[in-house]
Amino acid sequence: MQYIKIKELIAEQIDSGMLTPQQKLPSERQLAESFNTTRVTLREALSLLESEGRVYREDRRGWFISPLPLRYDPACSASFFELSSSQNRNGSIEVISAENKLINKTAVELLSLKPFSEIYQIERVRCLEGRPVSYVTHYIPTKSFSNLLDADLTSSLKSIYREQYGVLCHGTHFKLSSGSLLGMVASALRATEGTPALAIERRNVDSNGEIIDASIEFWRHDAISVESFFSKN
Amino acid sequence: MQYIKIKELIAEQIDSGMLTPQQKLPSERQLAESFNTTRVTLREALSLLESEGRVYREDRRGWFISPLPLRYDPACSASFFELSSSQNRNGSIEVISAENKLINKTAVELLSLKPFSEIYQIERVRCLEGRPVSYVTHYIPTKSFSNLLDADLTSSLKSIYREQYGVLCHGTHFKLSSGSLLGMVASALRATEGTPALAIERRNVDSNGEIIDASIEFWRHDAISVESFFSKN
DNA sequence: GAGTGGTCTAGACCACGGA
DNA sequence: CCGTGGTCTAGACCACTCA
Asked: Which residues, 6 or more positions from A231, have their beta carbon under 8 angstroms from its beta carbon?
């Protein structure tokens, strides 16, 4: 169980504060030599640290120290920008694609619409300090939001709904599960196939319980911590 | 990227329904031979399926098909038994240890108590269909619950608080994050070091906002899906 | 006691990132 | 273009599970 010891040695280095968030670790070959082992074993140690959320990988770029996770409260309606700046983080959003299309299977289930309904499908990537941490696909029935794609999609969708269409979100159904980054999602987040992730499905409803939109977010698992308070009335 | 193809081939087998939940896969050596590859590559494919929550591993016992995850609603105060039986699952609880001790660092932070306070620390494992899926450590100030350890600790703690001490839980602080199973927790869940997990911290409060107890749960990540609804009043 | 999974070695080739 | 990480091979030994 050599890789456990190596993991602990690297963890010590991190804890000691000699390494700062987003700093790159030495190359695998260098580290393997330092610990007098092979790359395979060294990578096992690093993967363990990755699964603990202490380091992360960027595909073919190397291993980096994880920053503190963003605290995310589902009960709070703050936008990603408000959230990140309230925690002294530098949040930004990049639009990957935005199109008007016929509903697909995933969206049918999320939105409970009829087949052949039209929706907007918007894909965005959220970054913290320039690091892509979350890939979001929004599914929005076109019905209530004509010409939505003309809006500035790098801003908060919730604020567009409110300011340009007078639509207010009253509640949200959440579903959280642990999974992994695959395919396009992985590459958009500069991650390798199979990187651990937290999947968050959201369905926003208005005060009549009608669905406004839905989305699926994939977060790099080290980048987020979900916190909330529930009480009985 | 051979391991991706192998992953997909195994995934097809699972989807086809030829394999049932909790069924054991053939040995790694057999699978490696079937796919004409080495154990290392085969294990990469299996690890990917594991991170997607399609299969799980039991330490030195092999690879198994994952059952559907348990749906878990933090807003709902159902006990683990009520939850599992409402989903036609067979839940059971095993007490690992239960002791009266001085508070430790973790508990100080969770319970906001003074150093040298006394607490009960109870460790339990929850199983579904006999499979250990979650390791829970409860931290309970002794103050409000004299002789708690004499109660039947295999039942719901919340019901003990209510029925034997007249203490009602009014709200809960939640913190969810993705991590991995380590040390004793891993072995109690028959998992190997580093198995992906969902960590859930809870702090239960009464109607005055006073902390009743706190707990940390580690769930095998394929065994749980957290679902809830939030609304503005 | 046979076979299993966990761990490890010592290489190799390739495609990509970054200078 | 060099070095990197991603992927893969073909073995090995051990401790453990399970029949």
From this structure: B170, B171, B172
CA torsion A70-A73-A76-A78 (nearest 10°) is: 20
User: Is the CB of B162 inside 8 Å of chain A's CB atoms?
Assistant: no
Instruction: Copy the structure tokens of residue B203.
Output: 């702090």
Please indicate if any CB of chain A lies within 8 Å of the CB of B132.
Answer: no
Find the angle CA(A98)-CA(A101)-CA(A104) to the nearest 5 degrees. 110
* Closest CA relative to residue A123, chosen from A56, A189, A177, A176: A189
pLDDT by residue (tens digit) across B186-213? 999 999 999 999 999 999 999 999 999 9
Closest residue, chain B, to A171 (C-alpha): B231
Residue B27 approaches strand C within 7 Å at CB: yes
The reply to whether A33 Cβ lies less than 7 angstroms from strand D is: no
Please report, rounded to whole angstroms, the spatial distance between the CA atom of protein residue A195 and the C1' atom of nucleotide D5: 15
In one-letter notation, the amino acid at residue A146 is S
A41 touches strand D (CB under 7 A): no
- pLDDT, tens digit, for every residue of A113-148? 888 899 999 999 999 999 999 999 999 999 889 999
Numbers of helices and strands, H then E, in chain B: 7, 10
Q: Is A82 exposed, middle or buried (0-12, 13-18, 19+ CB in 10 A)?
A: middle
Distance CA A22, CA A7 (A): 18
d(CA A7, CA A37): 13
Chain A interface includes B102 (CB < 8 A): no
